[in-house]
Amino acid sequence: MVEAVRDAGVVVTGAGGGIGAALARRFAAEGARVVVNDLDADRAKAVADEVGGIAVPGDASAIVSEARDALGGTVDVYCANAGLGSGGTEAAEEEVWAQAWDVNVMAHVRAARALLPAWLERGEGRFVSTVSAAGLLTMIGAAPYSVTKHGAYAFAEWLSLTYRHRGLRVHAICPQGVRTDMLTASGSAGELVLAPTAIDPEDVADALFAGIEEDRFLILPHAEVAGYYQSRAGEPDRWLAGMNHIQQRWEAAR
Question: Active site includes 145?
Fold first, then answer.
């Protein structure tokens, strides 16, 4: 058992399946009290019933107050996991860009606004952001997703550097391919880049809990992402050339 989460009040958004459901199961198994959120009320209830949690369906941007009440007045851990895997180029419709920004970034901002006053007053709280390796690197064929996941990572990083001395713990989870509906929806780009090394959602939960025990900000379920990230920072033109080669392979295969 991880003592940091035993009997903690935990909220997991987008937890009707995939990574979110795996996180909800793991937190419950570790002795936490879990609120399961999803836009799909039936899926939220199914996971909540499975883990002995409480279903609070609805828009992840607007459920903090209801989730807090469901947990008896206190949220100790908030997992900002709900996300959109929006594909497309710069030519994607304005609505696609706006929805990706709203779900992948602003939902995290709104949750932090609602949670931070109480956390900072009592000197503790834990914010878990499911980002993606795309937030550290990028993803071919998915400009809205890549750009907004960079934003999600930047916001998590900003929260950590701003409030860690006041008791806030932040974790940014950045996996590559994970066997979920989002990977399936990523189509041929996902098959080329993500599927060969895809892991199970439970592997992501394992990586998060190892990071919680070690008090680490950056959670890399795919360890090789650290090397890619270093290459991107240290040799950006070489890294971009390599990514462009993958882009060309994808275009040729379509």
Answer: yes
- What is the CATH topology of the domain spanning 3-253? Rossmann fold (3.40.50)
Q: What is the pLDDT of residues 41-74, one digit of tens each?
A: 999 999 999 999 999 999 998 999 999 999 999 9
pTM: 0.96
Domains of the chain: which residue ranges?
Answer: 3-253
CB-CB contact of 15 with 50 (8 Å): no
How far is the C-alpha of 238 from the C-alpha of 87, rounded, in Å? 25
In 3D space, the residue among 77, 153, 152 whose CA is nearest the CA of residue 118 turns out to be 77
- Catalytic: which of 78, 145, 153, 163? 145
In the numeric block, which tokens belong to residue 211?
């990071």
* Nearest-angstrom CA–CA distance, 238 and 251: 20
